[in-house]
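Recap from last week: sequence in, structure out.
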Amino acid sequence: MMDNTTNSVQTMAEMTQNGVSPEVLFWVGCAGSFDDRSKKITKAFVELLQNANVSFAVLGTEESCTGDPAKRAGNEFLFQMQASTNIEVLNRYQVKKIVTACPHCFNTLKNEYPQLGGQYEVLHHTQFLHQLIEEGRLKIDSKTEYKGKKITFHDPCYLGRANKEYEAPRALIKKLNAELVEMKSCKEKGLCCGAGGAQMFKEDPAPNARESGFEPNPLRRVFFGWDQCGACTSCQRD
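Predicted structure tokens:
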């Protein structure tokens, strides 16, 4: 699922053929593979893993959708078909640890795959990056372009309220020496962007149906709005 700019990334099949077991499997996800904005995150994350000398692999063409959109849309049968296929692949490679940049994939792999026989340690990429920094495996230049800039963070539903992870992304922002500006509706009170429940694939019932999920005023006094979800980014920008 990755183009030739990251052709140095090995697949699980290639590593297994060479008798190597990677430290972690990077689950790229649909957005990270096909959405132009999210593909930039995929490439940047790969570069960070390589800089930290992390042994990792991807599934490549063997990776398919986790089934999250199908489940949220109410198609449990399709979800279980997709999940069972992925679990069969993951278990065949004896995968133990997975990291993903998608909150939806993170939640599904972590909380819903175990019921179908997929038992893995699953981390969001902000958690893994923070861990690498704390262990000294990944260094951050103190003179980043974000130093002194004001940044706000929108908590994705499946990272924040569903899995109670609020600190890892904020810790990374602070590591950039940036000023974190919180919105009124954040963390436990964070609002859905409007794409939850597979709604991003549907037409809006009203022109402003998704606007209630945003708090525009604080964004006028910050330099960057940072999100960690492809669906949220699509809603906010499109």
